[in-house]
Amino acid sequence: MDNCKTGLALLDKGDASGALISFTKALIEHPTSPDYYIHRSKAFARLSPGRYDLALKDAEYAILFARQRGSRQKMQEGQLRRVVAFYNHGQYAAAQKLLTYSSKWDNAQMFKMWTAKVEQKLKTLPESEKVEIEVKEVPEVTLPTADQAKSRLKKQINADGSFNLSAAESDELVPDEPQADKQAAVASSTTHNTTSAPVVIRQDWFQTGTTVTVTLFAKGVDKEKFNADIQEGSLYISFPNPGNPDSEYSFSVDPFYARVDVSQSKVNVFKTKIEIILTKSTPNQKWGTLEGKEPLTTSNGSSGAGVNSIQQSVPKKESGPVYPTSSKTGAKNWDKLAADLTAKPKKDQKSKADEDGSASEGEDDPGYDSDEGGDAVDGFFKKLYAGSDEDTRRAMMKSYYESGGTSLSTNWDEVGQKRVEPYQSKDD
User: Fold this and answer.
1) Residue 187 predicted with pLDDT over 90
2) Angle 55-98-139 (CA atoms, 0-180°, nearest 5)?
3) How would you write the chain as a 3-class SS string?
4) Per-residue confidence band for 313, with pLDDT thresholds at 50, 70 and 90
5) Is residue 293 within 8 Å of residue 318, measured between CB atoms?
6) Can you give the pLDDT at residue 113?
7) Checking phi first, is residue 269 left (phi over 0); if not, alpha (psi -120 to 50) or beta?
8) pLDDT exceeds 70 at position 272
9) Considering only CA atoms, which of 105, 40, 111, 44 is closest in space to residue 76?
10) By CB count within 10 A, which of 58, 200, 272, 303 is most buried?
């Protein structure tokens, strides 16, 4: 997990090449982790120039491994990476086709944003280039076994520690058995992946004021072969898949929404389920989700787990303070909205960065995900925002968002306790 945290930190700093190496090392340790394939897909997309073909391949693996686990959330994240890869590669029709499968995404705002982006691009294409492309919702690729994936991933790291792109481009599967049994091994793997494979293991989680409980509904798990790694900011679990003991089932959360107290957390393996009880480092803190978006920052400013300090449970970018609102959709995270709306836009000229979407976008905001961006507001707004304190920024974002862009206030004491209604002119 340290490799994954290192990769996330490097990606956040704009070092896609370094992040790629770290995520590959993380995958060597856990070769069936959807999370790590999703992270690595982002790294491939942010190389200069972007390797969207390899980003797409990792996104497809993420979907299939998530499908094995029955993780709808990870499947959606993998689908988003496919949309981004097709979009950045100029294959807008393919991206649009994928979006037709994704209208029921949990993140409706992300779906709407990418639908609008793709439709806008398609409008600029001549009719001769608007070709209907058949893209399946479930990728039609052969999923490697854990051993096959690990063997292939190891070849992608050179002896000097650099990344081997040529090895990553290869689709060759290394057989689990000796060469004589290669055909049988591949056939077995293919059959395994086209027949809904292992038993789908349902997942659930709930929280109290002091704990977060994660449940995996797996029957007959062998306690002797069960592995669990709980850290302050992450969780990794693996065990032989009950539906196919020759394959491994793994479950990971990296990072958590907030840090946990490892010494007070525990795992119970029952006959019909696995129960992970995580004790919150900060009691009564409500977790918005089980998994966070960025690596948790420790008290010394580093990213990772394994430290005792819990003075700050979550960095501001992780969840952001939630403030009162009368919105029907619940409380909103104005810090996150600020990051989304003040992202630096792409240049108008046809630069390389504009073509591959991997260079300048969001460079003024290291927390901004450049390949999942949004529309930016005008320069005046951004300059005013950049020079303001935290309360002023929140007031600006809340007033701008709730009023539909018709009002802008810098007084948090005034707008923080009530909804800002859209401005109505006398002529309306």
Assistant:
1) no
2) 60
3) CHHHHHHHHHHHCCCHHHHHHHHHHHHHHCCCCHHHHHHHHHHHHCCCCCCHHHHHHHHHHHHHHHHHHCCHHHHHHHHHHHHHHHHHCCCHHHHHHHHHHCCCCCCHHHHHHHHHHHHHHHHCCCHHHCCCCCCCCCCCCCCCCHHHHHHHHHCCECCCCCECHHHHHCCCCCCCCCHHHHHHHHHHHHHHHHCCCCCCCEEEEEECCCEEEEEEECCCCCHHHCEEEEECCEEEEEEEECCEEEEEEEEEECCECCCEEEEEEEEEECCCCEEEEEEECCCCCCCCCCECCCCCECCCCCECCCCCCCCCCCCCCCCCCEECCCCCCCCEEHHHHHHHHCCCCCCCCCCHHHHHCCCCCCCCCCCCCHHHCCCCCCHHHHHHHHCCCHHHHHHHHHHHHHCCCCCCCCCHHHHCCCCCCCCCCCCC
4) very low
5) yes
6) 86
7) beta
8) yes
9) 105
10) 58
Question: pLDDT: is 183 or 418 the higher one?
Answer: 418
d(CA 317, CA 295): 10
Q: In Å, how far are 121, 343, 353, 361, 404 from 378, measured between CA atoms? A: 21, 11, 21, 15, 15
Question: Which candidate, 123, 126, 170, 133, places its Cα nearest to that of 148?
Answer: 170
Contacts of 70 by beta carbon, 8 Å cutoff, 6+ apart: 200, 201, 202, 203
Topology match between the domains 3-167 and 203-280: no
CATH superfamily name and code, 3-167: Tetratricopeptide repeat domain (1.25.40.10)
Instruction: Quote the longest CA-to-CA distance of the chain.
Output: 83
The span from the CA of 279 to the CA of 232, in Å, is 10
The domain segmentation of the chain, as residue ranges, is: 3-167, 203-280, 376-417
Distance of CA 11 to CAs 26, 56, 318, Å? 14, 18, 16
Tokens of 330: 């619940």
Over the stretch 217-242, which tens digit does the pLDDT of each residue have?
A: 888 888 888 888 888 888 888 888 77
Place of tokens 């479930």: 138
Q: What is the pLDDT of residue 125?
A: 76
What is the pLDDT at residue 340? 53
The HSE-up count of residue 181 (CA atoms within 13 Å, CB side) is 7
